[in-house]
Input
Amino acid sequence: MAESPPGSVPVGPMFAYPEIELSVKRDSNIALVPDATRKADTIWILRPSVRLEAKKGVNIYDLTYRGEYGRFESQSTDDYENHDIGANANLTLDARNHLKLGLQYQDKVDPRGTLNLAATPTPNQYTQTGATGLYTYGAEDAKGKLELDGGYYDKHYVNNRALGTSALDHNNTNYGGTFLWRVMPKTYATFNLKQSVHDYVESTNTLDSTNTFTLVGLRWEATAATSGKFSVGNLKKRFESTGKAAGRSDESGLAWEGAINWKPRKYSTVDFITQRTVNDSTGLGDYTRNQTQQLLWTHAWTSRVSSKLSGSYATDKFSKAPVAAAGGADREDTTQSIGLKIDYRMKRWLTFGTEYTYGVRDSNDNNSDYKRNQLMLLLSATL
Output
């Protein structure tokens, strides 16, 4: 039997990597509502997880479970349990052919205030099953490469169905391809075409639609101190005939997606993520045009002390969601957050951390404004 890697135990032909985290969080606004009606609470959170990994030659297989159990000291109706199970296979068939397969099952909640529905008395619980696949053709040093990917998931809400969650049951099928052409030793031009089909379960629902993305961009690998990708192009959202008959409008416009990783030092990393896309309605309007930027700086100050500084800025424009107080203009939100987490590694297997996050949403609908402070202390342990 091979020697167990640090933090693992052998389980037959696999190695198990267990981890557990206990945290306590003070949240100043548990339901994301304006200051006049907000409630604060203290939440105790337990996060157990385990990853089983096996290797056969160059192929890697893993099975993971991640749980999250939250208990509120005062508002016990907001108690929740999240379960996430996944299985993945990363296969190298030969020098030119590679395949990644994944299966996932989730039993989770959308916390109160995260959907655009009438206020619900409890978090909105859902189950979701899905599968993904990515096939890559092309040797590592090939001039051109081809990626074909696809996926499917089925999402079903369990509770608060009479309050609107039943209308959000849907399945999603997505597929697409990316052609990569090397323009410099470690830089590729990319040409991407992908579609996602949204099919809602209720026969009276008129949100069925197809999103089509046509994007061109660059992808670079370990060029100097950076790696990343960026693509820009066009997005088209087309509703089915029932949606158009109900007055829903198609959308066409600019879209992009990008992720950049910069390592100015071997102990310091900066990640930047940006996206412009369209999200389906969760109870308000036809759809939401979303634009998001996120920045994360991770820095190891010593062998024991590290920090993560994060920030995000997002805008959401709701199509056909008039706000009377804004003179009948469609609703627009700006959401910002900033956070700092500091970890102290007391032992190889034991880490203590503290985290503070501040978030604010400013909307032309005053009933959707909120401010939120979260302070958390956590203790995590591995083998």
Remarks:
- The two ends are 19 Å apart (CA to CA).
